[in-house]
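Database export, one record per block. Field names are fixed; values are copied verbatim from the stored entry.
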Amino acid sequence: MTAGDESDLVRRGYDALSYHYRGDDAGEDRYAPWLAELRARLPAGASVLDLGCGNGVPVARSLAAAGYQVTGVDISDVQIERARRLVPAGTFIRADATAIEFPTRSFDAVVCLYALIHMPLAAQPGLLRRAAGWLRPAGWLLAVTGHSAWTGTEGNWLGGPAPMWWSQADAGTYRSWLEQAGLQVTAQEFVPEGDGGHELFWARRPLADQRAFLTPEPARGYPGRRLRPGRARRSRCASATPGWSRSGPRAGLVEPPTRQVLEVVVPAAFRGQVALASPAPWS
């Protein structure tokens, strides 16, 4: 079976089993604590991508109701039609997640719950790398992946008229792929289900180089204009020290810079020879 055959099997499976999988009025159930945690980590009005959004319930529905800008992607026509009806505030795209593209730094969070495991294994690392690029600095990836490696098909899944296909790596491999994508895994836990289970990951795109938050203010008399001969002159330059929020819903995010004024003495003998270097972000 080729990757195209596998993806088509999943598409046709969810077209046929959409209502078997989840009803229009389904609750958040096991998703509730994950969604509450995600809402606590995101700024107001954040942009969220839901990969494998299904019928939009509960992830897109919950996030849209909280005022977030939600974009959902799913391979099933039936699932997307239902999502557009059930979550009218969201934007939903019928597409193969392993082939779709978005501009870099488009989203504050990417959610992918129980969806990677329905994608060809060889395509999963590349999707995670692209998803990392779609995140803004300090953005979050919330994913539920496989726990143990397995590939296979189940006929009459959920008691319905169609088979379903899965392909998943083990938890250690998913963690390695996330780290290779440039994400920092901040939490990982086993999610039990029946005789087995899945793996939950919270991963974050690192902040941009902290020095980007330095905002030098042109020194008075340097380098924009020459100092007059004579005694040493004092120049002023501004730097910024990033501050860290150690608690609260956005723990760890860099807050707006705190400006500090440094006094730099430039002796007359060294006019034109001294370059003022920005201080390190923190000592």
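Remark 1: Helices lie at 3-21, 31-41, 59-65, 77-86, 124-134, 171-180.
Remark 2: Residues 164 and 238 are 60 Å apart (CA to CA).
End of record.
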